Amino acid sequence: MTTPIHPATRVGHVHLKVSDLDRAIGFYSGVLGFEVTQRYGAQAAFLSAGGYHHHIGLNTWESLGGTRPAPGTVGLYHSAFLYPDRKALANALKRLAEAGYPLTGASDHGVSEALYLDDPDGNGVELYWDRPEADWPRDEKGGLMMVTRRLDLGKLLAEAD
């Protein structure tokens, strides 16, 4: 039996190969609202929320002008960004709506509510908030019972500022 990873371990950042750096920055900063913390000319940039050094790295080192991955190939399914509460997720939905940016899905998973979309390079993105752990659905033995139900976007958007 192996020793489990330390329970305080977290995903620190995601670093994506993109085909057009300015277009990717336009999405992650202009649409989603992450702040550019550092830029390496026309080849790379780092973005964050709340002043952290970076949550997202973007580069064109191997992908400048590249095409989206073909369906049926392996790779990143999506990166997920955890919002602190439902209101913050509602404000993210409002930003997307104001930018005319399309969703690919929206789900209530019982433990969380999530918005799904693709960035300009076809990388999947999940924006979500977690319900308090005490509210997570469980079976009679206490096991987690995640679900996938339709998320009411109108009700979510009504909570935005």
What does this structure look like?
The protein is an alpha+beta fold and 161 residues long. The protein folds into 2 domains: 11-65, 2,3-Dihydroxybiphenyl 1,2-Dioxygenase, domain 1, CATH 3.10.180.10; 77-161, 2,3-Dihydroxybiphenyl 1,2-Dioxygenase, domain 1. It is 19% helix and 28% strand. The strands form 2 sheets. The protein has a 5-stranded mixed sheet with strand order 5-8-7-6-9. The longest helix is centred in the middle third of the chain and has 14 residues, at 86-99. It is globular and about 55 Å long. The N and C termini lie far apart (50 Å).
Keywords summarizing the entry:
161 residues; alpha+beta; 3 helices; 9 strands; 2,3-Dihydroxybiphenyl 1,2-Dioxygenase, domain 1
SSE blueprint:
Elements lengths: L13 E4 L3 H11 L3 E6 L3 E5 L7 E4 L18 E6 L2 H14 L5 E4 L3 E7 L5 E7 L18 E2 L2 H5 L4
Parallel strand pairs: 1-4, 5-8
Antiparallel strand pairs: 2-3, 3-4, 6-7, 6-9, 7-8
Provide a compact summary of the structure.
The longest helix has 14 residues, at 86-99. This protein has helices spanning 21-31, 86-99, 153-157; strands at 14-17, 35-40, 44-48, 56-59, 78-83, 105-108, 112-118, 124-130, 149-150.
Query: What ranges have pLDDT less than 50 throughout 5 or more consecutive residues?
Result: none
What amount of the residues lies in strands? 25-35%
Query: What is the N-to-C order of secondary-structure elements (H for helix, E for strand)?
Result: EHEEEEHEEEEH
* Average predicted local confidence, pLDDT: 96
The best one-word shape is globular
Order of strands in the sheet with most strands: 5-8-7-6-9
| CATH topology grouping of the largest domain | 2,3-Dihydroxybiphenyl 1,2-Dioxygenase, domain 1
Kindly give the count of domains: 2
Major sheet summary line: 5 strands, mixed
CATH superfamily of the largest domain: 2,3-Dihydroxybiphenyl 1,2-Dioxygenase, domain 1
Q: What is the CATH C level class of the largest domain, in words?
A: Alpha Beta
Number of helices: 3
Report the strand count. 9
